[in-house]
Amino acid sequence: MTTATSATSVPIDLLRKYDRPGPRYTSYPTAPVWTDAIGGEHYRAALQKASEQKDTPLALYVHIPFCRTRCFYCGCNTCITRSTDSVSDYLDMLEREIGSVMALLGERRKVSQLHFGGGTPTYIGEAGLERVMQSLEREVSFPENAELSIELDPRVTTMKQLDYLAAHGFNRVSIGVQEFDPTVQEAIGRIQPVDMVAKLLERSRQLEFGGINFDLIYGLPHQTVERFSATLDTVIAMRPDRLAVYSFAYLPKFKSHQSHIRPDDLPVTEDKYRLFATAIEKLTAAGYRQIGMDHFALPDDELSLAQADGRLHRNFMGYTVQAAPEMIGVGMSSIGYVDHTFFQNISSLDSYKEAIARDGLAIYRGKALSDDDLVRQYVITALMCNFRLDYDALKDRFGVDYRETFAEEHAGLREFFDDNFLRETDSGLEITPLGRTFVRNIAMTYDAYLAGGDNKPTFSRTI
């Protein structure tokens, strides 16, 4: 039984002060600076170079874009379809892409982390999952301790699908909850009773899935502190291993389906701050540790244990304990990282299919990292994942003296020291429990691409 810890209280005035546009740092450099100068020929060369490290494990992301209906809040790259032919055609192209990529990787076939995202991966049913898994199992091997995870929509996922996933090695699930309040659910076009989620959770536990995650969103229409508090209480009683608590980004000009949400129904800015502050206080009081700015995990969860030991990693699939230095992305809009270069697939379904049919690959942009990028990536990742930066470790890895290289950036940390977000020790920097909520703001100090630029149109707000 996990014991509760003291709650972390985040003053509203600090949320107000630091609420500004900024990256989430699922990558560094961030996607807005990627370029179409990076294409398929660069990807082929990177994969062939990566093939030389045949014993080094890979991470693999599979994007399944389909959904039955579109939730009004959604910001993901999805396709709404009832056409079985469209799904079948996509799976054909996905299988072809997997074959093309693995052929270039030669004997490097060990995958330590696999994640199915979307969209709604289980929308394709057991037969579709079987097709994808068969194509993967022909090409790759999974070590005994591999992490196989998938995103689940309780409205679509069946118990038979869960049984299938468990039988094929999946051991992590992330369940989309968002909100339990019926008024909020109706306003976002996603009706799923508490009992529906509870049954999915119960079966997941019976099948011994570990690291079971719930996704929540704050800032939704008709959401109040009272309603969100009730949702949090229900969630805490269910006791998932992990939680992600995301801020709703209302962008109807870019996501036309969000126009179903009336701006007058959204919580005003001050109330949105209170929603987030309430989540942090309730979850930490219930014993969850804050993992990054908006993730939480029980103290005995492997993410918490890895963070305490400085072993936590992060990529586009989320936080993980699996140290796979390179990631392969397959499927429409997927992102990979190979040979210190980011690669992204085409985001349009038809264009993706055409590219795969023509060329076997569908890369349309990316970013090759410079030596400076790699150093800054390390610093930002250390702060985002483990809430600390060790100066000697930085020097051992890159031959870089922190105080010389980052003298200007360090001076820019003064407000974070003053607000008790950071402390400096003889060995490096440590982010305080209060500062964990503002780790994006701290990381921005080291982002060379933000200097002198107007990032407001590009990034979501940090709170």
What keyword list fits this structure?
463 residues; alpha/beta; pyruvate-formate lyase- activating enzyme; 2 domains
Describe this entry's structure for a reader:
It is a single chain. The chain is an alpha/beta fold and 463 residues long. The protein folds into two domains: 1-25 and 370-451, Arc Repressor Mutant, subunit A, CATH 1.10.10; 26-327, pyruvate-formate lyase- activating enzyme (Alpha-Beta Horseshoe). The chain has 17 helices and 19 strands. The strands form five sheets. The chain has a nine-stranded mixed beta sheet with strand order 9-10-8-7-6-5-4-1-13, with helices on both faces. A three-stranded antiparallel beta sheet has the order 14-15-16, with helices on one face. The chain has a three-stranded antiparallel beta sheet with strand order 17-19-18. The model has no long low-confidence stretch (mean pLDDT 93).
Question: How confident overall, as mean pLDDT?
Answer: 93
Structural domains: how many: 2
CATH class annotation of the largest domain: Alpha Beta
- Strand element count: 19
Number of helices: 17
**What is the terminal-to-terminal distance?**
32 Å
In CATH, the topology of the largest domain is named: pyruvate-formate lyase- activating enzyme
**CATH homolog superfamily of the largest domain:** tm_1862 like domain
Percent range of helical residues: 25-40%
CATH architectural type of the largest domain? Alpha-Beta Horseshoe
The biggest beta sheet is recorded as: 9 strands, mixed
* Proportion of residues in extended strands: 15-25%
Q: What's the gyration radius in Å?
A: 22 Å
Structural class: alpha/beta
Poorly predicted runs: none
Shape: globular
What order do the strands of the largest sheet run in, or round the barrel if closed? Answer: 9-10-8-7-6-5-4-1-13
